[in-house]
Structure formats: C-alpha cells, structure tokens
Write a structure and sequence with these properties.
The structure is a single chain. The chain is of the alpha/beta class. It has a domain at 3-181 and 219-244 and 281-296: Rossmann fold, CATH 3.40.50. Helix content is 37%, strand content 17%. It has nine helices and 13 strands. The chain has helices spanning 16-27, 84-89, 91-112, 148-167, 192-201, 221-233, 250-261, 285-291, 299-313, and strands at 7-11, 31-36, 55-59, 74-77, 115-121, 172-177, 180-181, 206-209, 215-217, 219-220, 240-242, 247-249, 267-270. α4 links the parallel β5 and β6. α5 (192-201) runs parallel beside α7 (250-261) and α7 packs across α9. The termini are far apart. The structure holds uridine-5'-diphosphate (UDP). Uridine-5'-diphosphate binds at residues 83-84, 179, 191-192, 195, 207-209, 214, 216, 250, 272-273, 276. The site of uridine-5'-diphosphate has 15 residues, from α5 and β8.
Length: 316
C-alpha cells in the first residue's frame, strides 16, 4: 500500500514544525489528524487546510487519554512547548506532554500497530561537554534547573520510546531536532530567531544574552522536514540528529540578522539565562550516511524568507 490514504496522527500539529508536517502529508495524500491543545500552537498555522477533506483538527491535550476510531498508520509526537521562555511559563505541561503524552501516543501506536516517531531535541545533550554532539553522547543535563523540565521530559520520552520498541516491538523512530527556524514561529516565543527578527524589523536594539559567545547552528524548516520524512521512511530505530552543522556565535548571528534585514538597530547585552548551553552543533554523519540527508538552505537565504514572512504576518 502506498502512503496515499494512510492515516497519520500529528500531535502539536498546529505548532511551528507540526503544521509544516501537516502540509507535507496532506500534499502526499494522507489523511491527517492534527491534535493540539493550542497552548503554544496556533490555528492560523493550519487554517489553510481547514476545508481539505483529508484534514481533521482535534483540540485535545495529549497528556490526557486519547481515543481515535479506525486505522492509524503513523503517530508523530511533536506536541510540546519548545522555547525556553515557553517551558519556563509552562513547566508542568512541558513535563506532562513529554512524559504522559509520550506514554499515551505510544499506547496509540501499539493499539493501532502504527509506526511511531518521537520529536526529541538537542536539549537531551544539555550543556554539552562533547562538541560537536554525536548521537552516542549521553549528555550533560541539570535535572533540577529551569531547563530540566524540557530536557528530562524529552530524555524520558526517548527512554519510553526505546522501551516500547524493545519490549512491545513497536516500530519507532527518534529525531533529535537542533535549532530550527522559519515561517510560523511565534514572533513572541522568546527564541533567538524571532526575537532578533522582531527587534531588527522594528529598529529596536537586538538583545544578546551574555557576551554572545555561546554558539548555535540554525536549520531551515524545509531541510528539517525533509530529514524527518527520510527518517520516518527509513528503518533506523536509534536516535538521529537532524540539524545544520554551520555554527555561529550569537553575536555573529545578531550581526547577520541586522545585515539581512538592513536594520539600523544597536546590540545590547542582557544577562545569560541559567544553564544556557555554551555551544551546540550537530554531528550529522549518521543522517548523511543512513538517510542520505544533509541541509541545503543557506542561513542568509532562510533568514530572508523568514523575515519576509514575519513582515507579512506581524499582526498574528
Ligand atoms: N538569545 C539571545 N537573545 C535573545 C534570545 C536568545 O542572545 O533575545 C540566546 C540564548 O541565550 C541562547 C541562544 O540565543 O544562547 C539560543 O536561544 P533560544 O532561546 O533560541 O534557544 P536554545 O538554543 O537556547 O534552546
């Protein structure tokens, strides 16, 4: 059976990445069940799919019992606050959706004999002491710090996914998503890309935390979605890093955003948040070898598209 007509559940489907996944699977002819409680997701991200007969939106908190009639072929668990500011505002929902939400979605996959894909994160590596980060690195996470609610929930989510895989023989995939950006990020979500773009297009000062010497590597959403699709279609059951290995300091990144947006902003320095990882860059050897995947979009080009989108959608 080709993927056409297959039925897929995407939790967090009204979020940034979830909604792009909904688009992709609708294009491919699947029946998409988009599940979201809308605490950080936004219906505007999926409004264009509303009238499609293959699209169904279900407003539901996936940390609570979930039932769906009929066959399900794929379950993708993408629901979670994902910005440090959001998971500070929603610490308990973040823990619950990573822990209970993973349990519930794995239960659904088991019941329906569906393939399961967990959206994990580079945060499982914490403030890494190994650089760049390979999948074999166990991480350096503060369990009781402010980011612990996200990091530990995702680490638990990986553990329970592997347990369902090994014990219940569920067909599982785990993607470790590194910093990703693009259209449909919330302009107020507090992450560095929307913050700097918002500040630059309003000629406000760009707020660099610390001295801006910490590094990140930014992947455009379309590259990330392609990596996820390849992982889903592969038979790789161990976690795979998907991200862009081009690494920038946050100060370099601030200058780049100003260049690309022709901003006249200043840069100001603010305190570094607690446990902010000092460096982050994915080692993508594994994805290159087993998924034949590597990112294609240059940061300047992706930023240009993102800035254009934010300018058009600033009122959202
Ligand atoms: N950051 C910054 N200014 C901002 C927002 C974030 O300097 O206005 C920094 C933040 O301290 C971190 C990096 O940018 O070092 C990326 O932060 P983000 O919140 O995007 O996500 P993280 O990669 O930390 O999960």
């Amino acid at each position: 059976m080709s993927d056409k007509k297959k039925r897929i559940v995407i939790t967090g489907g009204a979020g940034f990445l979830g909604s792009h996944l909904c688009d992709r699977f609708i294009q491919d002819g699947l029946k998409v069940f988009c599940v979201d409680n809308l605490i950080t997701g936004n219906l505007d991200n999926v409004r264009h799919l509303w009238k499609d007969k293959n699209f169904e939106f279900i407003k539901h908190d996936i940390s609570k019992e979930f039932r769906l009639g009929g066959h399900v072929h794929y379950v993708l668990h993408f629901a979670s606050p994902a910005s440090p500011v959001d998971y500070l505002n929603y610490p308990i929902p973040t823990l619950k959706v990573g822990a209970l939400g993973s349990h519930i979605t794995l239960g659904l996959a088991k019941l329906k004999k569906a393939r399961y894909l967990l959206a994990s994160t580079s945060e499982v590596y914490g403030d890494p002491e190994e650089h760049p980060q390979k999948e074999s690195y166990w991480g350096h996470v503060n369990p009781i710090g402010p980011r612990g609610v996200y990091d530990e929930a995702k680490r638990f989510a990986e553990a329970i996914t592997m347990a369902y895989h090994r014990y219940h023989k569920i067909d599982t995939r785990i993607v470790r998503i590194f910093n990703t950006y693009g259209p449909r990020m919330r302009i107020q979500d507090g992450r560095v890309v929307p913050n700097f773009i918002y500040q630059a297009i309003h000629n406000k000062p760009l707020t660099v935390y610390g001295r801006g010497a910490q590094t990140r590597s930014f992947c455009y959403y379309s590259d990330l979605i392609e990596g996820i699709i390849r992982l889903l279609r592969s038979n790789v059951t161990m976690p795979v890093n998907i991200g862009n290995p081009d690494e920038f300091t946050i100060l370099e990144f601030a200058r780049l955003v100003m260049d690309v947006s022709h901003a006249k902003s200043k840069i100001i320095f603010k305190p570094l948040p607690v446990d902010d990882p000092k460096q982050r860059r994915p080692d993508i050897t594994f994805a290159k070898k087993y998924l034949k995947w590597s990112p294609q979009v240059k940061l300047e080009d992706g930023l240009q598209e993102t800035i254009r989108w934010f300018k058009q959608n600033i009122a959202r």
